[in-house]
Specification:
β1 and β2 (about 95-100) form a beta hairpin. The chain has about 150 residues and is of the alpha+beta class. A 6-stranded mixed beta sheet has the order 3-4-2-1-6-5. It is built from 3 helices and 6 strands.
Length: about 150
Amino acid sequence: METNKKELFYKCLETINEKIEQYQNRMDQIKESMESNDIKTDYDEDNKGEMLSDFEKNAGYLSEAQEQKEELSKIDPDYKNERIGFGSIVETKEQYYFIAIPLGEISMENGSKIFAISTKAPIYKELEGKQKGDTFQFNGKEQEITGLE
C-alpha cells in the first residue's frame, strides 16, 4: 500500500484545525462588527439579526469541527488494522478511503488522493469488518479490497 498512515492522520488533523480556525475567526469578525455597530443609534435591526444568525451558524460549525477533531484524536496512526473499522485505510482498485471523520478528499504528498469518511457514510456499512481480498457491493458495483492498513 502506497499510503503513509501517519502523514494522512496529520493531514486530516491539519485540515480540521484549519476549519476550526476559520470558524473561530469568522465568529470573532462578526462579534467585532456587532460590537462596533452597537455604538450607532441608526443601526439596522434586520442586519443585526442576520449577523447574530451567522454567528450562531458558525458557532455550530465550530462545535462540530471540535467534536470531529476529538474523534480523530482517538486514532492511533501506528496501529495496523486486520479488519476494516475506525482508523482503517482501505484501498480498492478505484479509490482509497480513510475511515475517520468526514473531510472528503485529502491530497497526499505523493499525489494520491484519499477520501476521509466517517463510520456513518453509506459505503462504510458495506466495508465494516471486511479484510484484504474481500469484495463488497456499492452503488450496484462490485469492488475488491486490495489493501488495508
